[in-house]
Amino acid sequence: MESSDGIRVLVVDDHPMWRDAVARDLGEAGVTVVGTAGDGAKALRIAPATRPTLAIVDLHLPDMTGVELTAGLTALAEPPRVLVLSASGAGDDVLAAVKAGATGYLVKSAGRDELLDAVRRVHRGEAVYTAGLAGLVLGEYRRLSSARERDEEDGTPALTPRETEVLRLVAKGLAYKQIAERLSIAHRTVQNHVQNTLTKLHLHNRVELVRYAIDRGLDD
Fold first, then answer.
1. In this predicted model, what pLDDT tens digit does every residue of 83-117 receive, in sequence order?
2. CA–CA distance, 79 with 54 (Å, rounded to integer)
3. By three-state DSSP, how is residue 15 classified?
4. Fewer Cβ atoms within 10 A, N terminus or C terminus of the chain?
5. Segments of the chain with pLDDT less than 50
6. In this structure, are residues 62 and 33 in contact, taking their beta carbons and an 8 Å threshold?
7. Which residues of 105-142 are buried (b: 16+ CB within 10 A; e: fewer)?
8. ∠ CA(152), CA(154), CA(155), 5° rounding?
9. How far is CA 99 from each of CA 56, 91, 148, 153, 208, rounded to the nearest angstrom?
10. How far apart are the C-alpha atoms of 36 and 14, rounded to whole Å?
């Protein structure tokens, strides 16, 4: 069996039986489940303390959408990667989740082995989608790439190579400390690059920055 060392999962689903079944399957496969939640508010409340490296999120929650929760989780100081596990395979739902920061998207008809494989791959930073959805996401990225080229022609502020590099790592879900270690620069330097990028792009916070980067395929 492939090693699951280092994977810490938070399971968020409003159906107790489904939530418990997913947590049980993960635990039996050697994956550490650090917490479960039936709504978005609890997930956001316990995530900073439990420090999951990956969150499995349902799209339909009682207090917020899974898309809103995904954006909230990816904006944390130590953001987990997000794997959406939903009954919906609708294109709009998939694209909304990806734009909010989800790294993977599976429909609930996926088997146990498919889920475990997706958890391990998303944990490594791979983009994982239920068969048939990858083409949809790729097509959207191509459309956004064309939009990005138009933006450049329209005079969108140019970022420096270092600012772009930092932005790419922010979009991949790395915390500022991790980015500093990856690039061998100071934590404050990372903060300065992010602030300069926010100012140039007229954005206000990390959530908007991540969405901007994902819209332009910088997390690819």
1. 999 887 777 788 788 888 888 889 888 889 999 99
2. 8
3. coil
4. N
5. 1-3
6. no
7. bbbbeeeeeebbebbbebbeeebbbbeebeebbeebbe
8. 70
9. 16, 12, 15, 23, 11
10. 10
Residue 1 pLDDT: 40
Site of tokens 């008809």:
109
- Name, in order, each residue with C-beta under 8 angstroms of 186's C-beta and a sequence gap of 6 or more: 180
Bridge partners for 12 per DSSP: 37, 57
Query: How far is residue 63's CA from residue 87's CA, in Å, rounded to a whole number?
Result: 18
- Please state the φ and ψ torsions of residue 104, each to the nearest 5 degrees: -140, 160
Query: Identity (one letter) of the amino acid at 203?
Result: L
The per-residue pLDDT for 2 is 47
Beta strands in the chain (DSSP E): 8-12, 32-37, 54-57, 81-86, 104-107, 128-129
> In what side-by-side order are the strands of the sheet with 104-107?
32-37, 8-12, 54-57, 81-86, 104-107, 128-129
